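Archive maintenance. Older records in this collection stored only the sequence; we are now back-filling the structure field for every entry so that each record is complete. The fields below show one back-filled record exactly as it appears after the update. Entries are processed alphabetically, and MurR/RpiR family transcriptional regulator is next in the queue.

ARCHIVE ENTRY
Title: MurR/RpiR family transcriptional regulator
Organism field: Cupriavidus campinensis
Length field: 299
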Amino acid sequence: MSPDTTPASPSSLDALLTQLRADFPTLSAQFQSGARYLLDHPHDIALHSMRKVAANAGVQPATLVRLSQSLGFEGWQGLRELFMEAMRDQGAQPYAKRARKVVKESGSNQMLAEMIEVQHHNLDALLANNAETLPQAADLLAAAPNVYVAGFRSCFPIAFTFHYIYRLFRSSVHLVRGDAGTLEMELRALTAKDVVLVTAFAPYSQESLRVASAAREAGCKVVALTDSTVSPIALEADCTLLFAIDSPSFFPSITAGVAMVEALVEQLLARKGKGAIRALEQTEGQLHRTGAYLPAQRG
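Back-filled structure field:
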């Protein structure tokens, strides 16, 4: 690349991350792997060596050098300096491979301690990653005449939790299920005024992208609840909420995802105020009258 065609490098970390998100769909597969790690783990870039970052991102160190140069830097160190300045100012293993590690290192007490430690980290990251976007997501959802929520396979419990709790005080919340191959028929109900919340983490399901794409085609606003700012559904979204899926076990954790939707519903309840309280009282009363709950035992 000649000096005349070399792009000007971003002057701040925010500008760099914005450019990476904008350029992400056009990058090569190797560059996407490197860019994804830069976007999702900015604190690691300032703390770890290029070799460590490359290993974590699943690419060769030379890929990070070339990615840096494509962004206008002379090399990796110039790009890394933006992450270091920001600090001063203030994809996934196969399940079977992870399962072998769990079996090899089995020990109930140790495994429980590791699980608790990792979940603390996952939950702590929620605030740092979503302080600005959580209110934005709540505003979008609260203003919509209808809210549709979708999550498939391991993400279904996250979607169902949001649907179940939110529907306690709002009737116009709909769970997209796609039972018996009816996903396309359910998506026909989407209108331009609606908001669709989609949740997915790597490896991403085909259905989640189909829902997000259909929502965009219908003119809906899309809220993505996902593990990466450049996940397929995040690239389709108007607002992205992030949760970590780290786990010492063989399967990614949904704990932080469930906590995220609980916090989101809390924001929605607060926005609706007294109206939500009245609706919630009516729902609870109906559940008790219809025998949904066992009567309270008296001593």
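Update note: Residues 108-130 form the longest helix (23 residues). The mean pLDDT is 87.
Entry marked complete.
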